[in-house]
Specification:
Pfam families: PNPOx_N (PF01243). This protein is of the alpha+beta class. The protein contains eight helices and seven strands, in the order H-H-H-E-E-E-E-H-E-E-H-E-H-H-H.
């Protein structure tokens, strides 16, 4: 595939030019951004089993990480503070290392079947308070730490992206078997994948790892 080259003639490099390409911001859209979690935001979070966590390191390199658990896994500690359990993963610790370097985070909460999303921005701290972690236990296993976020902005996002993508529509679900397994993709990208029989063993081992190490 040939490398794409950006024509500098069509580059937008300042906010004034950017805004000239769009309609004026509506008063309601400007006012909907809150500085604390009201009852509707708290209810949304209580229903959500999944969020995306956006972080940046000290140099501005960005990362987005999925976080999922049973409904209500994010704890609202007060109207401006929430806590996210950190469950076992691959130990790359990209998001956590970014938070240590740069505490600014962005959260996007999703609820299956809801086309709206909840956006939360704030400052994150990594906390190992055992009393807090115990409240986040699943199957008698507490997380190693919690990401505690002091909320600075919160607002509901409209349904357009989900309506366009048909994300929750069963008729638009794709067949996972049309792409290789995660194990094969990673091996293809790194050391090279073995034959099909050996891949079946590796895929089964991955499923067993999922079963044993979710918490």
């Amino acid at each position: 595939m040939e490398a794409y080259k950006i024509n500098p003639e069509f580059v937008i490099s300042d906010e004034e030019t950017l805004r000239s390409h769009y309609s004026e911001l509506s008063p309601l859209a400007a006012k909907k951004c809150l500085s604390a979690l009201d009852k509707h935001a708290r209810d949304f979070i209580a229903r959500s089993p999944f969020l995306c966590l956006g972080t940046q390191n000290k140099d501005g390199k960005a990362d987005v990480s999925p976080r999922g658990d049973p409904v209500g896994f994010v704890k609202v500690l007060d109207p401006q503070t929430l806590a996210i359990p950190d469950r076992p993963g691959n130990n790359r610790l990209d998001s956590l290392a970014n938070i240590v370097a740069n505490p600014n985070v962005g959260l996007l909460f999703l609820i299956p079947g809801f086309d709206e999303t909840l956006r939360v921005n704030g400052m994150a701290t990594l906390v190992t308070d055992p009393d807090l972690l115990q409240t986040m236990s699943v199957k008698d296993r507490a997380p190693k730490l919690a990401i505690v976020v002091k909320v600075s902005e919160v607002f509901l996002h409209c349904a357009k992206a989900f309506r366009r993508s048909h994300l929750w529509d069963p008729e638009h679900q794709q067949d996972r078997s049309e792409m290789p397994s995660l194990s094969k993709i990673i091996l293809d990208q790194t050391t090279g994948a073995p034959d099909e029989k050996e891949m079946q063993k590796l895929d089964a081992a991955l499923e067993e790892t999922y079963r044993k190490t979710l918490y």
